[in-house]
Amino acid sequence: MQLQERINAFVKLGDFLRQFSNEVIQKADNVEHNDLFFDGFKHQLKLTEEHNGWFTKENIRFALASWSEALSSKNLNTWLKPYNITEVNPKQVAIIMAGNIPLVGFHDFLSVLISGHNVLVKQSSNDKHLLPFLAKYLELVEPQFKGNMTFTEAKVENFDAVIATGSNNTARYFEYYFKDKPSIIRNNRNSVAVLTGNETNEALKNLSEDIFRYYGLGCRNVSKLFVPKGYKFDAFFEAIYHWNPIINKAKYANNYDYNKAVYLMSEFDMLENGFFMIKEDESYASPIATLFYEYYDNSEHLKTKLAADKDQIQCIVSNGFTENEIAFGATQKPQLWDYADDEDSIEFLLAI
């Protein structure tokens, strides 16, 4: 199969997903094999929402919209242009996926197939309905993919390389278990935002998207703020208040109530607004419904600290603070070339 044939197949998949990316799902006339797959995918969306209370209609729709936008011919060709992807001797690449947000392992799945390899997928039980169905769609729009995609619930075996994502504890297990295979092993990371106190209301509203999207469960979600000494949080609380309906979601509300009770019983100082808490803390990973913050008094010292802690950080959200910063509101809209943990998966896959 030629690279352009693989690109064309994923462009068609993007066209298929675009039908499900708006609040009102509408069947398009120009999407291949729609009669076979449209109603079936609607059913998979329903199963996904019923299976995982964190995967709401809104968050599933957001994920599908992001992928439908990413899978354009322009984006795929821009992404792959720097690489010399010619004839590849296909290897079996195992992917062990996380399940924290919908289709969180799709970029690895795409990378393996687009580079010309075969994929062996072990999904998280939290996110198991959507990807196998989309794989069947790919097989129909590009029959040469048949036999190249395998899904398993058992122990992964008979593979040449592996991409595995998990917690810090499971990452240590992965590193031992896969020590004899080429691998990318990912563990817990969190994202941070650096504020100056001069942010506009619009910028802070955009930041709230980085905090609350997917209930804060993604590694690209902002879980910690760095603020200048003396920073007043009034403008911040005002800008995020439009997210207050989030408290009506039972799983979120349960976490909010629990963490608030823990903080009160422990007599921790924290600020809250009825649906969200902020707490001064040096940690990067904050619980659901909570954002940690830390004061800084020197931007150069803060840059040094963040550089030293780079293995714990996925994204830095700021405006004019650092070279590779992410704009406010953009953490959950990565480009295809924005690699997790800054590890170039295409380069890895072309080298195995």
Taken as a percent bin, the fraction of beta residues is 15-25%
**CATH topology-level name of the largest domain:** Aldehyde Dehydrogenase, Chain A, domain 1
Q: Unreliable stretches, pLDDT < 50, 5 or more residues?
A: none
Q: Measure the end-to-end span.
A: 19 Å
- In this structure, how is the largest beta sheet organized? 6 strands, mixed
| Cα Rg | 21 Å
Number of domains: 2
User: What global shape is seen?
Assistant: globular
Number of strands: 11
Helix content: 25-40%
* Tally of helical runs: 12
What is the CATH class designation of the largest domain?
A: Alpha Beta
- CATH architecture label of the largest domain: 3-Layer(aba) Sandwich
Strand order of the largest sheet: 8-9-10-7-6-11
Helix-and-strand structural type: alpha/beta
| SSE pattern, N- to C-terminal | HHHHEHEHEEHEEHEHHEEEHEH
CATH superfamily of the largest domain: Aldehyde Dehydrogenase, Chain A, domain 1
Report the average pLDDT across residues: 96
